[in-house]
Amino acid sequence: MAKITEGRLNEEIQQLSLKMYALQVIHSIDKMASFFQSSSSSLFPAIKGAWKNTPVDETNRQFISLEQSFLNQLKKHPAFFEGQTKYNLLEKMRLATEILLSCVPDKISLQITEEGSIFYTVFKNDLHIYFQHFLIDEFDQTDECMVSVYKGEKKILDYGGSLADTIEELSKSAPELNALLAIA
Amino acid sequence: MNYPLEILPNEKFKRIDCNIESYFLVRLIESHNIDEIFNNDTQRINIAHIFNPSERIDDLSLSLWGIYNQNHISLKFTNPGKDKYMEECEPDEIVEAPQYEQDFSNDGAIYYWTATVNKFHEVTFDYQRSNLPLKAKCFVKHTPMKWNFWHFSLRWITDQGPLDQMQGNARKNAARKIGHSLRVLISEFARLSKPPDNILPKECYCKN
Q1: In terms of CB atoms within 10 Å, which end of chain B has fewer, N or C?
Q2: pLDDT at residue A36 tops 60
Q3: Nearest CB to B39; choose among A109, A150, A153
Q4: Which residues of A fall within a CB distance of 8 Å from B47?
């Protein structure tokens, strides 16, 4: 039997922790689905339990483009995420990106920042979503996110918390506004 | 090259005391590469060029557009020049003009972002429902400097006190949220285009 090195063991633990972390935010995707249901219902035919990524071609294209952009930026600025493995960074980026892409945005871009975060700019109809995901070197729920949302020139949300909580707040913010607009 | 004397503090000047909400603030972008600066997809300035978070976020430097204009945006100070002139002063302080090459040069930078004062002044950010709650308000303050009478600063007051007086984790939390909010604000409202040449009336900054 091959000897398991300490480094390998740590890597296994990190990967397992990351999977657990991923599961904690999956429930938020259901809420995101209802948030954008009008235009993305085809994306969510049956979200029960495990998330199945079945993006339309455009979303797929956006995902690949964002992933490539992230990798290019990471290569250019490795010091922004010092001490973290590329594997873990990429997995975290993929997770948040998939969630944000579930709204089938009109436009989306990402930029890495010196403080070790990914800053997403997402446009959907007249919603402008600015979502910042701080990728810290831990795999519990402490990754911090911040989101601000504008509808036209009016800000409708500022929130900071875990990825799961932030996605939940984001999903709750827009339906309320839609309802208000419908009444108006 | 002579230093533009019109932007230096002057014994005839006072602190600006008019409503300047519709006037434009500008900030230099150091990169000369428009492809780096501007994201064609989102039609927004890339956040890396909005400001550098390693700078003091509690005191972001800007200038009021008008008498300070595109002729001044690319002034670049040498280290000795910075020591001598990058310092707040009274609006009517008599300042010796900076010397070319010794104190300053012109690096040919041509890009800058602009937004009106009212996009920042007294704008509030409310993270009360967050895991680490914070409420903050932005103020645009006229802060004349020895190199530029038209220098302004963005300052922040939070529900836990002024940002520049906060310490430890409280400051870290506040600075992170304010940094995010400021990037959002500038992404949303700042533009790369040249603002209108609105010159402030003299009575707003000249003593009687």
Answers
A1: C
A2: no
A3: A109
A4: 111, 113, 119
- Counted across chains A and B, CB pairs separated by less than 8 A come out at 65
The position carrying tokens 């060029």 is: B49
pLDDT for position A13? 64
Of B48, B53, B126, the CB nearest to A111: B48
Instruction: Tell if the CB–CB gap between B130 and A161 is shorter than 8 Å.
Output: yes
Average pLDDT of span B145-167: 93
What is residue B193's DSSP assignment?
Answer: S
Q: Of the candidates A132, A153, A160, which has its C-beta nearest B127's C-beta?
A: A160
Residue B141 neighbours by CB distance under 10 Å: 12
Can you give the pLDDT at residue A172? 82
Rounded Cα distance, A90 and B34, in Å: 28
Asked whether the predicted pLDDT for residue A37 surpasses 60, the reply is: no
A131 in reach of chain B (CB within 8 A): no
CA–CA min distance A79, chain B (Å): 14
What are B112's strand-pairing partners?
B28
Residue A19 is predicted with a pLDDT of 63
Structure token pair of residue A32: 């995101």
Q: Mutate which of A65, A121, A143 to test chain B, going by most B C-beta atoms within 10 A?
A: A121
CA B91 to mean position of chain CA atoms = 17
A22: confidence class by pLDDT, cuts 50, 70, 90: low
Q: B198: which DSSP letter?
A: -
Its pTM stands at 0.80
Q: Which chain B residues touch A169 with a CB distance below 8 Å?
A: 129
* Residue whose entry in the numeric block shows the structure tokens 């990798």: A71
How distant, in Å, are the alpha carbons of A9, A17, A48, A55 from that of A13? 6, 6, 27, 30
Based on DSSP, count helices (H) and strands (E) in chain B, helices before strands.
Answer: 3, 11
Q: What is the spatial distance between Cα B39 and Cα B37, in angstroms, rounded to a whole number?
A: 7
DSSP state of A106: S
